Amino acid sequence: MIRWVAGRLLQGLLTVALATVLAFVLMRLAPGDPLAILGHDRPLTAEARAQLEARYGLDRPVGAQFAAWAAGLARGDLGASIATGQPVTRLLLDRLPASLLLGGVVLLLTFGLGIPLGVLQARHPGSIADRLLGGLSLTAWAVPTFWLGLVLAGAFAVRWRLLPAAGMSDPLLDPAAAWPVRAADVLRHLVLPAATLTVVSIAAVMRYQRAAMRSALAQPSVLAARARGLPEHAVVWRHAWRNALGPVITLLGLWLPLLVTGAVFVEYVFDWPGVGQLAAMAVSARDYPVVMGVTLLVAATTIAGNVVADLLHAAADPRVRV
Amino acid sequence: MPRARSLLAPPCRALAAFVLLAMLPSGALVAQRGVPGAVVIIIGRDPVTPVPMLTRTTADLDVANQLFLRLARIAPGIRTWGDSGFTPELARHWTRRDSVTLAFDLDARARWHDGRPVVANDVVTTLDRARNPATGGRYAALLSEVVEVRAEGARRVVIRFRRPYTEQFYDAVYHVPPLPAHLVAAIPTDSLAASRFAREPVGNGPYRWVRSVPGQLVELEAVRGHFLGTPGIRRVVFRVMPDADARLNLLLSGDGDAQEAVSPPVANLERIRAAGHLREVPVASGLLGYVLFNFADPADSSRSRPHPILGDVRVRRALVQALDRTRMVRSVFGPYAAVPEGPTSQLWWIRSLAPAPLPVDTAAARRLLAEAGWRDTDGDGVLDRNGRPLVLRLNVPAPSPPRRLIALQMQEQLRPLGVQLDVQVVEGAVFAERRNRGDFDLDFGGAVQDPSPSGIVNSWSCANAGVPDGNVGRYCSPAVDSLVNAARFAPGDPSRHWREALARIQADAPAIFLYAPATVFAVSTRYRQATLRPDSPWGDLRRWHVDPARALPRDRAPR
Question: Which helix (H) or strand (E) holds A320?
């Protein structure tokens, strides 16, 4: 087991290294002026432009730029954002909690609701509930996230004023307010972005779970469990569901990076101050240091997600060995 | 077999609890004490360095203008020449000693937010740093005519200029508000942006710095007993939202009180009017939109060869006259934009000196193109000359919806003329790179102009031809340069020189000048005396008051 984990980590490190090299080279190959954003409102003088190019190493060959970035990385320094001048590490750390919160809640809701609904559909295939849930979830899956976000914001925030339209907290809330007050404020702001993401992503979990569960319920072991007179609840959850977990765990592994990247469109529409929003702005502005920092983070989380999924597979199914 | 309800109940209960808890209104959670007044201003970009000399964006300036006062402020007419038309701020009064010397007497009541008095040395230190090419950056060029800044006693500042010119006073008071010498003198300019002072600026304006959450907000607090009067609004929050739809939703939901640039699209104005609690306030702005002609051939890497199509003034004038600019601009900006006849935004006082616009005249445009040798010899609907079709590439930045919309209309209006316009919508960073490299036929540029028309030198002078972020279209007219120089440095009223310069620019047609819009703000109707200024939109914030009958919980929230 330890050997397996060590092997996967080594493999993961190589993958992360490859991903960062690729991202570095591709970003440099892509057209675009990384200093453009600094001259957006007030044009840069030739001297200021030369100073900035020297400060961010943009006047050096790509190889030298990568070497400097890698040396910084070895010291734990990801450089400074070209757009804001702030350290990339600080920018990521500032935004990570927001993405973890949104991504965590969405994963919890998507899997917490999607699994039982998928099981329900599998247990009553062709029923009205199955067809209704299947139709609704597919419709939700087909809806563009940003459109749904705008509609929900328009209805719940603008028209009925039940929930905040955007942001993660009320900026006028007393910073010294008790933590339950602050937590409730964040929860209010979380409802619409979390609901938007959950609605559009729950369909995948439901369909994977429905298909896997239908297959599991048809297994002889389930027939045998029923024949032994086990209660239906135990037959479904203890015998069939455990065998139907594989595809859902794979899906979970793939979606774990959502924890750190959030969702770009939703973070934009609701101005959720997460890593996804930062990444989108950085790519658009060619803010190389920030793009590299986000790439590193996402690559590492993707590898971690796969390792976690493999471990969960092994825990759920004794036939799988790691 | 258990019913479905038993399988779904636990997650549904959890979800219901989550939603109910989250739907508690925040107003109910805020203690209510007093009515101090608050305003939440929604902006699109993060104010990163809201400190004079470090400001780079409009967002930086919005915040810096609340924290730092100038010696004098420019009057709403934005006349930048001469010594009149300015209102005292840090300087209580001033005298002109001779044609090259101005003396300013500081207001003895002015204080920095740490309690220290504002003294002449603050002004001297700041201007000396700004006009030094080694430390002043772009300000050194703006203050290049200043040869000496000295203190006479604690509160008198004397500024001497190299030669007489019309904008001495403007240069002295506008570009760089004073910084506190006792806090910044020891900080090298290179380190200023990363200093604690830049993170927590100490100013002398009606509002003091409270906090910032990067990417989310900046909060300011009124200075009680400020020498210009205690502001009527105690808390000011600049809330940062990059997405335009999110900004409007926040405003319409009532969680925001004011927003800049709510239109275009014009449809937003209908939503604001329908909301009932907001009013639209158009304010003259320094924005200018134009399609720039490239005078150099983009296929020639040295850029020394004239553009094979646009090098001919007849083609450029034909393109200008073929377009119904008023119709295009109205469709995007509604009633809040004018079609400028020259590089003059609404902020420039010289805009009224520009010649009458060239009328839309497609017959004249066809005639000009025919004179230049462009005919449709192969019947494909596109004019050609010596086997070369009249095809032009127009670069448009994707982040600018007005420019995208107008570009498509231009394409349609030029098609019947036999001109094929290839519209290339590209990311902002790509657009800027192509622009600075001269890699375009037509470039849909936009500028934010300072109040002084002297800025015309940056984008339209021979000296700046080919300079990145400068005159990228490489238009060069020694006659225009000479007239602009005369307007800047000849004694007396410079209007005549400006009029001639603008007429010459119109005749040369270096660009299709499309729109000079007002910035449309939306402001909650619960504020009284809520005026906005062209030079600094939120500059009158200290005069705003909340109507007590319409105060919200956030107006009473403690700080």
Answer: none
Please give the structure tokens belonging to residue B123: 């002004």
Helix or strand run (H / E) with residue B43: strand B38-43
Residues whose CB is less than 8 angstroms from the CB of residue B385 and which lie 6 or more positions away in sequence, other chains included: B372, B373, B374, B375
Measured in degrees and rounded to the nearest 5, phi and psi for residue B103 equal -125, 130
Nearest-neighbour CA in chain A from B91: distance (Å): 27
| Parallel, antiparallel or unpaired: strands B391-397 and B442-448 | parallel
Rounded to an integer, the average pLDDT of B380-403 is 94
Phi, psi of A132, deg, nearest 5:
-65, -50
Alpha-carbon distance of B135 to B192, in angstroms, equals 11
Do the bridges between strand B545-546 and strand B527-528 make them parallel or antiparallel, or are there none, so unpaired?
Answer: antiparallel
Q: What is the CA radius of gyration of chain A?
A: 24
Q: What is the pLDDT of residue A42?
A: 63
**pLDDT at B31 (0 to 100):** 33
Distances (CA, A) of B410 to A37, B326, B374, B415: 27, 12, 19, 8
**For residue range B262-290, what is the model confidence (pLDDT) as tens digits?**
988 888 999 999 999 999 999 999 999 99
In one-letter notation, the amino acid at residue B362 is T
Structure tokens at A298: 């996402």
Contact between A194 and A106 under an 8 Å Cβ cutoff? The reply is: yes
Task: Give the pLDDT band of residue A281 (cuts 50, 70, 90).
Answer: confident
Task: Give the residue from A271, A275, A281 with the most B CB atoms within 10 Å of its CB, the best one to mutate.
Answer: A271
Whether B69 and B536 have beta carbons less than 8 Å apart is answered as no
E-strand spans in B188-234? Answer: 207-213, 217-222
The H or E element spanning position B1 is none
Return the pLDDT at A317: 75
Please tell me whether the peptide bond between B265 and the residue prior to it is cis, using omega within 30 degrees of 0. yes
Alpha-carbon span A171 to A173, nearest angstrom: 6
Q: Do B2 and A232 touch (CB under 8 A)?
A: yes
Q: Return d(Cα B505, Cα B511) in angstroms, integer.
A: 9
B116/B127 Cα distance (integer angstroms): 19
Are the C-beta atoms of residues B174 and B74 closer than 8 Å to each other? yes
The alpha helices in B266-351, defined as continuous H runs, are 267-275, 313-322, 325-333
Residues of B in contact with A202 (CB under 8 A): none
For the CA atoms of B143, B145, B150, B152, what is the dihedral angle to 10 degrees? Answer: -110
B559 touches chain A (CB under 8 A): yes
Per CB-CB distance under 8 Å, the chain A contacts of B426 are 31
**CB < 8 Å from A in window 382-411 of B:** 399
The span from the CA of A166 to the CA of A157, in Å, is 9
Distances (CA, A) of A293 to A20, A84, A86, A87, A191: 9, 15, 13, 10, 29
Q: Which residue, A300, A254, A177, is CA-closest to B558?
A: A177
Q: Is the pTM of this model over 0.80?
A: yes
> In sequence order, which ranges of A75-144 are alpha helices (DSSP H)?
88-123, 128-142
Helix H segments across B393-494?
401-414, 428-437, 456-460, 478-489
SS3 A69: helix
Which residues fall within 8 angstroms of residue B152, CB to CB, at 6 or more apart?
Answer: B103, B120, B158
Separation between Cα atoms, residue A41 and residue A38, nearest integer Å: 8
- Buried b / exposed e over B153-175, threshold 16 CB at 10 Å, is eebbbbbbbeeebbbbbbbbbbb
Residue B82, both tokens: 């001469």
Say which residue the tokens 């007219």 belong to: B477
CA B229, B230, B232, B238 dihedral sign is positive
Q: Is B40 on the interface with A (CB under 8 A)?
A: yes
| B219 phi/psi in degrees, rounded to 5 | -120, 135
| Rounded alpha-carbon distances, angstroms, from residue B491 to B1, B55, B159, B480, B487 | 98, 32, 19, 18, 9
CB atoms inside a 10 Å sphere around CB B491: 9
The pLDDT, as a whole number, for residue B66 is 96
Cβ atoms of B39 and B541 within 8 Å: the answer is yes
